[in-house]
Amino acid sequence: ECYVQNTAREYAKIYAAEAEPLEGFGEVPEIIPIFLVHRPANNIPYATVEEELVGEFVKYSVKDGKEINFLRRDSEAGQKCCTFQHWVYERTNGSLLVTDLQGVGMKLTDVGIATPTKGYKGFKGNCSVSFIEQFKVLHQCNKYCEMLGLKSLQSTHQKQRKPTSTKSKTLPNSATVRKTVP
User: Fold this and answer.
1) pLDDT tens per residue, range 162-173
2) What pTM value is reported for the model?
3) 34-38 and 97-99 beta bridge pairing
């Protein structure tokens, strides 16, 4: 848990260094640090400790990789969390996705990370690789993605699907074509 959250925290610091200087970007999400504490005299010898977050606790994205929920999609924090996910995904060439973004305002905690099954640069996440695929399909860029110059994932997804759709058109069974062409 500590390793995952603190790894995501390091990416968030780099993201902040790139985003904060941009005119109009404003405050960026911060992943708070989490610490492992050894308590040898206790029945449970290890515990995690982090800053207490006071205020309305909000889930900006869910652990299964889906886009932020519809009620939070229009909030500034929600949009910036989605942009952070997109930025990490692009920065790692699609090999890492920070997910389960939640917290109070711009302070986030208890995040998850999805990686391919082989991991990414020796790091294995704690979420399924399917979350990455879901994010690619569901993510909708917003003004913060544009400010950072991130490439649309929809066009990448459509380009990958296009050859499949073209091949489907040549199949003799028209029922199959209707199933595979969106």
Assistant:
1) 444 333 333 333
2) 0.77
3) unpaired
Q: What is the DSSP string of the chain?
A: -HHHHHHHHHHHHHHHHHHTTSTTT----EEPPEEEEE-TTSSS-EEEEEPPP-S-EEESS-TTSPPPPTTTTTSHHHHHHHHHHHHHHHHTTTS-EEE--EEETTEEES-EEE--TT-BTTB--SB-THHHHHHHHH----HHHHHTTPPPHHHHHHHHHHHHHHHHHTSS-HHHHHHH--
Residue-wise pLDDT tens digits, 124-146: 776 777 788 888 888 889 999 99
Indicate the burial class of 117 (C-beta count within 10 angstroms; 0-12, 13-18, 19 or more). Answer: exposed
Span 1-148 CATH architecture: Alpha-Beta Barrel (3.20)
* HEC string for 49-88: EECCCCCCEEECCCCCCCCCCCCCCCCHHHHHHHHHHHHH
Residue 175's identity, in one-letter code, is A
Q: Which residue has the tokens 């504490």?
A: 37
User: Tokens 């294995």 label which residue?
Assistant: 124
C-beta of residue 99 within 8 angstroms of C-beta of residue 63:
yes
Alpha-carbon torsion (99, 104, 106, 108), positive or negative = negative
Q: How is the chain split into domains, by residue range?
A: 1-148
